[in-house]
Amino acid sequence: MGFSLCSPCVYPIHVPCNHEEGVCRVSWHCVFSGNRCWFRYHGNKPNTISTVFGLYVLITILAPISGAHFNPVVTMVDLIEGKSATVQFIQYIFAQALGAITGAMLANAMFSYPLLEASTKIRSGGNLYIGEIVATAGLILLINLLVNQKNLVVIPAAVAAWIGSAYFFTSSTSFANPAVTIGRTFSDSFAGIAPECAPKFIAAQVLGALIGLGLAKVLTREK
Fold this sequence. Notes:
By secondary structure, this protein is mainly α.
């Protein structure tokens, strides 16, 4: 048995569980990608509301099944802290990426767009990478502090609120998730990201996660 960073020692995860995580990841990314496509018609306010509520509901109901591992950098931090094995990490990363791509395809189908389309939305520049570092560092810091405080019940709401607010206060609109970044390369919309821009976004997210983990260690260090 392993345990999610989002809810250690509360939500058991069966290893291997890549089929469970695949279903969970598709469910989440279908909601996320779907509301991003909806942006084309309705603007960013309902899009963000949908993201916040969808993320809260899916973390709440899927955490007992897979630990709600929707984010590869959260899974990476689990690995760094010795809370998951390397094999489990690889299984989760594969399921997260596959689910993200499948979810994007489902969202495209729902809104009558080509099933497979490559994004042409260029997202590059130091300001955007800083935005991703801030968004991801804040996410990892938030989760780790709540875990340390044993305040696990508020994690779904806190994570959803952070992602929703970071959409507005970061220059990058808070991707904060490598799997989401990969999925959005298959959405040729305002919410998409051109495939050639994705690697630097993901690198910024990994750096942000490490910074967030470091800050959490400093703030929870016993005096």
